[in-house]
Design goal:
The complex is a heterotrimer of chains A (242), B (255) and C (109). Chain B is of the alpha+beta class. Helix content of chain B is 34%, strand content 27%. Chain C has a three-stranded antiparallel β-sheet.
């Protein structure tokens, strides 16, 4: 009795082919997770109906997956459109859902952007992170001062030195540390960094001052929408008088 | 079984002759073939020398088989383990993939049907139906409005979206609220910023985000709040970062 | 004209293939059959036979299967493949040439 069986090479090929097919189904059912931060960001753009932006900055945590807590982002990408900026905060690469992307208007002047996710430092401390975009290239150093982040802080005025993430993109890490409070219990305002007054000071390479900017940190809002209360009153009258 | 059993000369010969074959299944197969050969040889000795016991015959047969180390070297050269290892690896890989596959299939929720909110609330009356136009194409998605209904007395327009893509594994993101704004024929602008929808007294015009579900062709429910009862059309604007794409919904004549 | 191990290996292949030309056999059977046909001239050693059998099988000149032998036990049988038959005729031709050459040298007096 002779039996036609697959040769070992054929079995290997068959196994690999089957693994590929079933593997694809598993991958597709997970939403098609991407292996790198940049590819994940591109996927986020696609699924949110956004055009491909020009990526100006990719920051990835040096911490390993095990060291990173679930509430902190592991990558931050900044993409540029003609009039807008997209900021993506990625928590997991292998999960297309749950990552955050926010749009900001692109200004001529230096634009503050509070990150919508916390970042984690090497010693495990969590940070509120403030980005400044469109920072002039001549800036060799930067320092940001905000007031009122932590309600019960010993020192409500905080100044942090910035680190340059990319051309025009600087990041400022504000630690979340109960040691900063008067009673050991962290009490925030409702909005993390949003709505706080800030001052940004830029320095040249020789240490001399370059420029300074003051303002209020923005809330996350959507460009292009003008809310007109006058119009709404008319509408409301109609609705209420049905 | 802690005792070390004595290897018979025959077993010792076989061990040495197959020691060079590293891949387990191959080694076992070759060993078996040589063992059978040895058995046949031993049987012949017993036939020729009837006084021999089975063990003695086997011992003699082993001695007559030649140098096991020499034959071991030749066999090792022929039976290289790499293809065997590769085969093993492919089996392990396939096994792992199949396990993940079964885990996936086991946890898949039943396919979400297209159930609009209206079915859940039978008391609602449709004031007017709105119809979408041609499907729009964004990022290789084909996106269109399946149906839209303005609910009487509530100022709510309930829209059912459908989407499809050649990348059938990339479901559109429902929670990205910044994508959606709207304008109607009265010029009212609808925001999608949740925090701006309540001014302390009343609900301001607001476009909710779309929650997509399903597979292959996805469907999503969306509610627009603050729509006037007589609105003739409403235009949903989808933000793309480089401008917005309009989707116009026109009021259909009621019967 | 090399009279060395290579030639012996070469002629062993020829012997094995021709044994299997008409009939499938298992290892021990081949050794007994070979000595029978050659009137005990050739006693191929196991150390020679099995490496050749396995090498020929790997190279697809032979195929193998399990079958019950006349002794009642199951043995690994070898069969020649079409490729093997081609190799056999090549080897036969080589051998004919070789032995003809030897004859010519020997008869040259």
């Amino acid at each position: 009795m002779k039996k036609r069986t697959l040769s070992r090479k054929e079995k290997i090929a068959r196994n690999l082919l089957l693994a590929l097919c079933f593997g694809f189904v598993v991958w597709a059912s997970q939403g098609g997770p991407m292996p790198t931060a940049e590819l994940t960001f591109r996927q986020m753009e696609r699924t949110r109906f956004l055009a491909r932006s020009e990526i100006m900055c990719t920051w990835e945590t040096p911490l390993s997956v095990g060291e990173l807590g679930t509430s902190s982002a592991r990558a931050v990408l900044v993409g540029r459109y003609t009039d807008q900026i997209a900021v993506g905060c990625l928590f997991q690469l292998n999960n297309p859902f749950g990552n955050r992307l926010t749009l900001w208007p692109r200004e001529e002047e230096i634009t503050p952007v509070p990150l919508s996710a916390l970042l984690q430092g090497e010693d495990g401390t969590l940070f509120h992170v403030l980005l400044f975009l469109e920072v002039p290239e001549e800036a060799a150093g930067a320092q940001a001062t905000i007031t009122g982040r932590i309600e019960n802080a010993k020192e409500p005025v905080e100044t942090i030195q910035g680190e340059r993430w990319a051309d025009g993109v600087w990041a400022f890490w504000f630690p979340i540390d109960s040691a900063l409070t008067t009673d050991g219990d962290l009490k925030y305002g409702t909005k993390d960094l949003e709505g706080l007054p800030y001052t940004l000071e830029l320095y040249r390479t020789d240490g001399g001052p370059l420029t300074e900017q003051e303002g209020t940190l923005p809330e996350n809002f959507q460009p292009g929408v003008i809310y007109d209360p006058g119009l709404y009153d008319v509408l409301n009258d109609i609705l209420l008088n049905q | 079984m802690g005792e070390k059993q004595e290897r018979t000369p025959a077993e010792g010969w076989l061990d040495k002759a197959t020691a060079g074959i590293r891949f387990g299944p191959d080694r076992r197969e070759v060993r078996r073939e040589l063992e059978e050969h040895l058995e046949d040889k031993a049987l012949d000795f017993q036939r020729i020398f009837p006084g021999l016991t089975e063990d003695e015959a086997k011992e003699r047969a082993a001695a007559e088989m030649g140098d096991p180390v020499e034959i071991g070297k030749e066999l090792a050269k022929i039976h290289r383990p790499w293809l065997g290892y590769l085969w093993r690896a492919s089996q392990v890989l396939l096994g792992l993939v199949l396990l993940s596959f079964l885990a996936e299939v086991g946890t898949l929720a039943p396919h979400a049907g297209i159930r609009s909110d209206r079915e859940a609330e039978p008391g609602w009356v449709v004031e007017a139906a709105f119809a979408g136009q041609e499907p729009v194409r964004i990022n290789n998605y084909t996106l269109w409005v399946e149906e839209a209904a303005l609910i009487q007395g509530m100022g709510e327009l309930h829209i059912t979206w459908r989407a499809a893509s050649p990348r059938f594994w990339e479901m559109p993101d429902g929670e990205f609220s910044q994508a959606w704004t709207a304008v109607d024929d009265r010029g009212t602008v609808y925001t999608s910023i949740w925090d701006q929808t309540w001014d302390g007294e009343r609900m301001l015009p607001y476009v909710g985000s779309v929650q997509f579900t399903g597979a292959l062709v996805w469907s999503g429910e969306q509610t627009v709040y603050g729509v006037p009862q007589e609105a003739q059309w409403i235009q949903i604007n989808i933000e793309t970062g480089e401008g917005t794409i309009p989707v116009v919904l026109e009021r259909e004549e009621t019967q | 004209m090399k009279l060395d191990k290579g030639l012996i290996a070469g002629s062993s292949t020829l012997l094995v293939l021709s044994l299997l030309e008409k009939e499938d056999m298992y290892g021990y059977q081949m050794i007994t059959e070979l000595s029978r046909r050659s009137n005990d001239t050739f006693q191929m050693k196991e150390g020679t036979l099995y490496p050749i059998l396995h090498a020929l099988e790997k190279a697809k000149y032979l195929s193998a299967y399990q079958q019950e032998a006349p002794t009642g036990r199951v043995r690994k049988y070898y069969a020649i493949t079409p490729r093997g038959r081609e190799l056999l005729s090549e080897k036969k031709a080589e051998w004919a040439q070789f032995s003809h050459g030897v004859d010519q040298v020997l008869s040259f007096t």
